[in-house]
Write a structure and sequence with these properties.
The chain is of the alpha/beta class. It is 43% helix and 16% strand. The chain has 2 domains: 289 residues, 3-Layer(aba) Sandwich (Rossmann fold); 110 residues, Dihydrodipicolinate Reductase, domain 2 (2-Layer Sandwich), CATH 3.30.360.10.
C-alpha cells in the first residue's frame, strides 16, 4: 500500500498514472523502475531486483479537503478528461482520511477535513490508527508513505528534535517546533512504515527520527523531489564543471500557478524551498578546488505565484560563464514543464525502492535514493552529492549490492 499525506495534484497524478499504466492505457514515462535497464545488459530493472508490481499497489491518504481522488484530480487540472475518465471509478473510490493539520505551518491553505485531538501525541496515535485501518481494509501486508503535501514554513532544528525522548516529550507538550510533516513521519515510522519526504519540509532529517528508524528498522529518504529547474541544473552544472568553464552567476526564476505555487507565495514557505534549491550548485561547483572558477559564484532563485499557469510551470535560467582568458559568455535555458507530471514517477520509484530496501533489511537514511531529491539526505558525516550522473551511479551500485546479497542469502550452504 502507498500512503499519501496530501492528496493534491502530485498524489492524484501519480495514482491515476499507475492505474492507467498497469492496464496498458498509458506509458509510465519517467519511471526508472518501470522502464529502466541495467547498464548495457538489456536486463530490465524490474527483472534485476524483486520490485513490487504495479498490480499489487493500493492507495490511501490524508487531505484537508474531503474531495475524492477523482474530484481532487479534476480540480488540479493536470490530466486530460480522457485519462481521468479511464481511471474514474478507481479514483472516485479513494476518499481521503481527515488530515493532521496545524495551519500555522501552511498559512496560505485551510480546509475543513481535519482531525481534532487533545495533543500532538494524541494526533500521532490517530495517524497510526489510520495506517492500521487502511492496511486492514485492503489486506495489505506492507506499506510505504510518501509525503506529497504542501511546503511548510521554514524550520531549523531545536532541542526537541535531538532524541526520541525529547521529541515524544514535545508531542505531549504540543511543541510548536513539531510540524505536520513530522507528525506523519513519526507515526509511520512507529508503525514500521518506510517514509520519503517529497517536500523541503523538516520531516525525516533530524536525529530523533533517525534514532527511531534505527530502533524500528525503517528506511527513510528525502528531501524535496527534483523535478524541473533543479533537474536541469544537476545535469548542466556537472558538464560545465567537467569542461572547467567558469561560472560567475546563475539566476533562476519560476512562474507556477497550482496549489504549491500558492503556498510558496508565503515568504516563510519560500525560504524552505529556497534552501533546498540553493544548495545544488555550491556542492557541484567546488570553490575550494577551483577558486578561480567558482569563488565569486552568485546563485539566485525566485518563484512567483501566477495563477493562469496552473500546474504548467515555466522556468528561466541565465548562466554567466567565463572561458579562455576569462572572456564572458552566457547560457540561457527555458523549461516549460508540468510539475506533477515530473513528480509522479518519482513518487512511484521512491515507494518501490523503499519497499525493496526494507525487505532487504536496510534501515535509516537511504542516501542512494538522492537521485530523486533536490536536497538529498547524506549519511551522517558524509558530503551531499548533487550531480545527477553520480547519483545515478550510486543508485545502481546499491541495487547491485542488494541483488548480490539476495543471491548469497538464497544460495545453499556448502
Amino acid at each position: 500500500m502507498i500512503l499519501l499525506p496530501g492528496m493534491g495534484a502530485v498524489a492524484t497524478t501519480f495514482m491515476a498514472g499507475v492505474m492507467l499504466a498497469r492496464r496498458g492505457l498509458a506509458p509510465p514515462i519517467g519511471s526508472l523502475t518501470q522502464l529502466g535497464h541495467v547498464g548495457d545488459t538489456g536486463v530490465r530493472l524490474a527483472d534485476y531486483v524483486p520490485l513490487a508490481a504495479l498490480d499489487d499497489l493500493d492507495f490511501a491518504g490524508w487531505d484537508i479537503f474531503p474531495d475524492t481522488a477523482l474530484e481532487a484530480a479534476r480540480h488540479a487540472q493536470v490530466l486530460s478528461n480522457e485519462h481521468l475518465a479511464l481511471a474514474a471509478p478507481e479514483l472516485d473510490a479513494i476518499h481521503p482520511m481527515r488530515a493532521a493539520f496545524y495551519p500555522e505551518y501552511v498559512t496560505r491553505l485551510s480546509g475543513p477535513h481535519v482531525k481534532w485531538t487533545s495533543s500532538k501525541a494524541a494526533m500521532v496515535e490517530r495517524l497510526r490508527e489510520d495506517v492500521r485501518t487502511s492496511m486492514a481494509r485492503t489486506g495489505a501486508t506492507r506499506a510505504v508513505a510518501i509525503w506529497c503535501g504542501s511546503t511548510e514554513v521554514h524550520q531549523t532544528l531545536s532541542p526537541v528534535h535531538a532524541s526520541i525522548s525529547a521529541f515524544e516529550a514535545g508531542l505531549r507538550a504540543d511543541a510548536p517546533e513539531i510540524s505536520n510533516a513530522q507528525l506523519y513521519a513519526w507515526a509511520c515510522v512507529k508503525e514500521r512504515i518506510p517514509f520519503a519526504n517529497g517536500s523541503p519540509n523538516v520531516a525525516v532529517d533530524f536525529p530523533a527520527i533517525w534514532e527511531l528508524a534505527r530502533d524500528h528498522r525503517v528506511p527513510l529518504a528525502g528531501k524535496d523531489f527534483k523535478t524541473g529547474q533543479t533537474l536541469v541544473k544537476t545535469i548542466l552544472a556537472p558538464g560545465l564543471k567537467s569542461r572547467l568553464l567558469g561560472v560567475r552567476g546563475w539566476y533562476s526564476t519560476n512562474i507556477l500557478g497550482n496549489r504549491d505555487g500558492e503556498v510558496l507565495d508565503d515568504p516563510e514557505a519560500f525560504r524552505a524551498k529556497e534552501a533546498s534549491k540553493l544548495g545544488v550548485l555550491e556542492t557541484i561547483f567546488d570553490a575550494e578546488e577551483n577558486p578561480e572558477l567558482y569563488r565569486d559564484l552568485v546563485h539566485k532563485v525566485r518563484i512567483d505565484y501566477y495563477p493562469p499557469r496552473g500546474d504548467a510551470k515555466e522556468g528561466w535560467d541565465n548562466v554567466d560563464l567565463s572561458g579562455w582568458l576569462d572572456y564572458p559568455m552566457q547560457l540561457k535555458v527555458n523549461i516549460l514543464c508540468r510539475d506533477s507530471i515530473l513528480a509522479a514517477p518519482l513518487v512511484l520509484d521512491t515507494a518501490l525502492f523503499l519497499d525493496l530496501a526494507q525487505r532487504a533489511g536496510m534501515f535509516g537514511i537511504q542516501d542512494w535514493l538522492g537521485f530523486y531529491f533536490k536536497a538529498p539526505m547524506p549519511l551522517p558525516g558524509e558530503q551531499r552529492v548533487h550531480a545527477l550522473h553520480e547519483q545515478h551511479r550510486a543508485l545502481f551500485d546499491e541495487l547491485g549490492r542488494i541483488r548480490n546479497a539476495s543471491a548469497s542469502a538464497a544460495a545453499p550452504a556448502a
